[in-house]
Amino acid sequence: AGSKLREIFDKINNLLSGKSVQSGGRAVSVTQHPQALDFVFYKLAEKFVRQGEEEVASHHDAAFPIAVVASGIWEIHPRVGDLFLAHLHKKCPYSVPFYPALKEGTSMEEYQRILGYQVKDSMVEEQDNFLKRMSGMIRLYAALIQLRWPYGDQQGTHPHGLSYGWRWLAQMLNMEPLADVTATLLFDFLEVCGNALMRQYQAQFWKIMLLLQEEYVPRIEAITSSGQMGSLMRLKQFVQKCVQEKKISLPTGALQPAFWKS
Predict the structure, then answer these.
(1) What's the total number of domains in the chain?
(2) Residue 204 is part of a domain; what is its CATH number?
(3) Residue-range definition of the domain harbouring residue 176
(4) What DSSP string describes the chain?
(5) What is the pTM of this model?
């Protein structure tokens, strides 16, 4: 509910502003230790990214309430935003976007970690699980760049707005695609913020969608094996439908004005 989200936001904002808040049955304040505020900034940013990786990965609709709180906190406390991007880029290099190359002297296990895979006892996580986590983080990012906390003063610009999404999309299409990963993340990103990009960039946006359909999807197809067709087909059908209908629907789970009255 909107009222519940306001409570959460106010509690986080109060904590970061040096006020005393109740946590675990006791009052805590960042004024209790000289490094407390730095620590809280770091852990909060890490927590937002983890919510993308875990909650949004399992429940796509969760991207919007988490993102609107993160966006509002970022606006008031810019340090949280810097640390959010640092955690996000480390856990999901594709959010930069960047495909790390294998460097000489780097072990395979370490390289898998750099690519974003979880490695435990030399066992690398399953591809499906890896893609699910990356999707969750990209969806959270795609929601965050288009949302603002509705109770802020709204005087300045969004601290990390849609122009960053436009740049991400353009950079993705300038890179050589990776099997499975590229198709999955382009679909996730466009499903969440395609509507917002379409409204903001209009004719320019449709040029990029045509490029995606006519040139980039065939390039992904060329490197995709038969066992990896699922993500490619999803992207292909999505882009085709959007270009044909000349529209992208609002994403499911988008926060409507009525939500804030709940």
Answers:
(1) 1
(2) 1.25.40.510
(3) 1-261
(4) -HHHHHHHHHHHHHHHTT--EEETTEEE-GGGSTTHHHHHHHHHHHHHHHHIIIIIHH-GGGHHHHHHHHHHHHHH-HHHHHHHHHHHHHH-GGGTT--PPPPTT--HHHHHHHTT--EETTEEPPHHHHHHHHHHHHHHHHHHTT---TTS---S--TT-HHHHHHHHHHHHTS---TTHHHHHHHHHHHHHHHHHHHHHTHHHHHHHHHIIIIIHHHHHHT--GGGHHHHHHHHHHHHHHHHHT--PPPTT---GGGGG-
(5) 0.96
Full pLDDT tens readout for the chain, 262 residues: 999 999 999 999 999 999 999 988 999 999 999 999 999 999 999 999 999 999 999 999 999 999 999 999 999 999 999 999 999 999 999 999 999 999 999 999 999 999 999 999 889 999 999 999 999 999 999 999 999 999 987 778 899 999 999 999 999 999 999 999 999 999 999 999 999 999 999 999 999 999 999 999 999 999 999 888 999 999 999 999 999 999 999 999 999 999 999 9
